[in-house]
Write a structure and sequence with these properties.
CATH superfamily of the largest domain in chain B: Periplasmic binding protein-like II
GO molecular function (chain B): metal ion binding; molybdate ion binding
Protein name (chain B): Putative binding protein
Largest interface: A-B, 51 and 50 residues
Largest sheet of chain B: 10 strands, mixed
InterPro entries (chain B): ModA, ModA/WtpA
Structural class of chain A: mainly alpha
CATH class of the largest domain in chain B: Alpha Beta
CATH topology of the domain at 78-236 in chain A: MetI-like fold
Pfam family, one (chain B): SBP_bac_11
CATH topology of the largest domain in chain B: D-Maltodextrin-Binding Protein, domain 2
Largest sheet of chain A: none
Shape of chain A: globular
Family (chain B): Belongs to the bacterial solute-binding protein ModA family.
Helix content of chain A: over 70%
Order of helices and strands of chain B: HEHEHEHEHHEHHEHEHEEHHE
Number of domains of chain B: 2
Strand content of chain A: under 5%
Oligomer: heterodimer
């Protein structure tokens, strides 16, 4: 205690300027990074929305409204919104039991299962798509034809990656909940599922929303697996990320950047919501 | 207060939400067989003419056409892995030959032709009169191992004896890109001072200037189409392939987007 006391005393006088230099250094690094991110967004906005520049003139002055007027892109927006919501809901339905199992359960091979959960996060995105495509070869042809290059492939590809992120969040949330309350409920005669529903679930409600929103944002950013497994078929399996690819492939840079802005706006909205919900839950 | 376990309520709400969302999905595919449909793997660079031609063919023949875009090389891998689909429309007949050798597709029908050209900003175009001039610039070139344009460029420049010059320039300050679209975008964004692309691709970038160099005139890409062996509708697929290559309106559509329709100088 005495050792601890001496430096604190000097700190009040001598450390004040050093401390502020420290914070200034941190703030500078943070500001530079934030500036880089904002500069990227500003460059996108200027490139897409300002007239002139090097992009093709065919798009006219309003590439964003031109993009939204295209029925294919509207279809893509519609499919993106609905498919991402479905895949994030499915992710939650899988992430909640798995997160709980990994947090509370004790079984042989748990470390291996835990590592397997991270496969979609560490695999290169194209490999996820290719693996799904190859996997479907083992299914009966009618089922394979109903999935590969069809809307279910979009949802499956999004789900595989998004759920890995949701599982991480849910597992962390269950780790932080108080085991004792659950044990008290059990000792009072509650079954496992009753204890889970009445005691654990209310504690992880915020985390579930955060996990769902993160899964949603992740599903929207999905591209590689979608391109390989669901294809980039206009008016069918095209989502916003594949719209960017399709517009780029024919040199419509402004259209591609305009659609990118839509995606950025949706992601920022979702991530901010996730943060707010997370803060409130905390 | 309800005595139902919140877990079950949440599960029921989730399942109901899923059911509603599935109904909200756009264009849920109809029952197979109610109208014939063709699934076409199409090189992304061909999107503009193919979209227009497929729409016209669909309305004239009552056939639903789904077009999947990608790089010709990626599409070939997808065809092999998925074993579904009716037609393969590639920007380079090498991929069609490979598909045929692997038993994935039948013989190819030539559809159109493209020639390699140099693209740059209008200000820089005046400085490019030879391959040597080109080698002084920061270049974006299609990868000779991945992109059809890269392979054609390398073959033409090797024949002309100046591939080393371009290869050195790229390794010094330029970049090899996997698709011709990436090359054109590099030049349009100013990331590269010049690039070599197909003339049909260049025509999709009106803001760029095109320079035709004699050394590149032999660098040609043959757009072709082949019916896949796993096609569920081979008759319709063959009919659409004929429509692409022989129909006057289709040929006009290709010409409109800077392609040289096949047959114009083949015979």
């Amino acid at each position: 205690m005495t050792d601890h006391h001496r430096p604190t005393k000097t700190a009040t006088n001598a450390h004040a300027p050093r401390l502020s230099a420290f914070w200034i250094a941190l703030a500078t690094v943070c500001a530079a990074y934030v500036l880089l991110l904002l500069a990227m967004l500003a460059a996108d906005a200027m490139f897409a929305l300002l007239p002139g520049g090097q992009a093709d003139a065919a798009n006219g002055p309003g590439p964003l409204s031109a993009a939204l007027a295209d029925p294919n892109i509207r279809h893509s927006l519609h499919l993106t919104l609905v498919s991402c919501t479905i895949s994030s809901l499915l992710s939650l339905m899988v992430a909640t039991p798995i997160g709980y199992l990994l947090s509370r359960g004790s079984f042989p091979g748990k470390r291996l299962v835990d590592a397997v959960m991270d496969i979609p996060i560490v695999l290169p995105p194209l490999v996820v798509g290719l693996s799904l495509l190859v996997l479907m070869q083992w299914f009966p042809p009618p089922l394979r034809d109903a999935v590969v290059y069809q809307t279910p492939a979009v949802i499956l590809a999004q789900f595989v990656v998004a759920s890995a992120f949701a599982i991480r969040v849910m597992r962390g949330a269950f780790d932080q909940t108080d085991h004792r309350q659950e044990e008290v409920a059990r000792s009072l005669g509650a079954s496992r599922s009753q204890a889970f529903g009445w005691v654990v679930l209310p504690q992880v409600r915020g985390a579930m929303l955060t996990a769902g929103l993160l899964a949603w944002a992740r599903a929207m950013g999905e591209f590689g697996p979608l391109l390989v497994f669901a294809g980039a078929t206009r008016g069918k399996t095209e989502v916003l990320s594949t719209t960017v690819f399709l517009e780029l492939s024919v040199g419509n840079l402004r259209g591609a950047v305009a659609v990118s802005l839509l995606m950025i706006a949706a992601s920022v909205l979702m991530l901010t919501l996730a943060r707010l919900v997370g803060d409130r839950a905390a | 207060m309800s005595r139902i376990n919140p877990l079950y309520r949440l599960m029921a709400a989730g399942l109901m939400a899923l059911a509603v969302l599935v109904l909200l999905l756009p264009g849920t595919p109809g029952v197979v067989g109610e109208e014939p449909s063709l699934h076409i793997y199409c090189a992304a660079a061909l999107r503009k003419p193919i979209e227009a031609i497929a729409q016209r063919y669909g309305s004239e023949h009552g056939v639903r056409i789904n077009i999947q875009y990608g790089g010709s090389n990626t599409l070939l891998s997808q065809i092999e892995a998925a074993r579904v689909g009716d037609l393969f429309l590639a920007a380079d007949d090498v991929y069609l030959s490979t598909a045929s050798e692997r038993g994935l597709a039948g013989n190819a029908t030539p559809v159109a032709r493209m020639t390699a050209v140099v693209v740059s900003s209008p200000e820089r175009a005046g400085q490019i009169r030879s391959i040597a001039d080109l080698a002084k610039l920061r270049l974006s070139i299609g990868s000779p191992d991945q992109a059809a344009i890269g392979r054609a460029t390398r073959a033409a420049l090797q024949a002309a004896g100046n591939w080393e010059l371009i290869d050195d320039a790229v390794r010094r300050s330029g970049v090899y890109k996997p698709t011709v679209g990436d090359v054109a975008n590099d030049v349009a964004l100013g990331a590269a001072e010049a690039g070599i692309v197909w003339d049909a691709v260049a025509s999709q970038h009106p803001a760029l200037s095109v320079v035709r160099l004699p050394e590149l005139s032999s660098a040609q890409g043959a757009v072709g189409v082949a019916v896949l062996t796993g096609s569920h509708h081979p008759e319709h697929a063959r009919d659409f392939a004929r429509y692409l290559s022989h129909n006057e309106k289709s040929r006009h559509e290709f010409a409109k987007w800077g392609f040289e329709p096949a047959g114009a100088s083949d015979h």
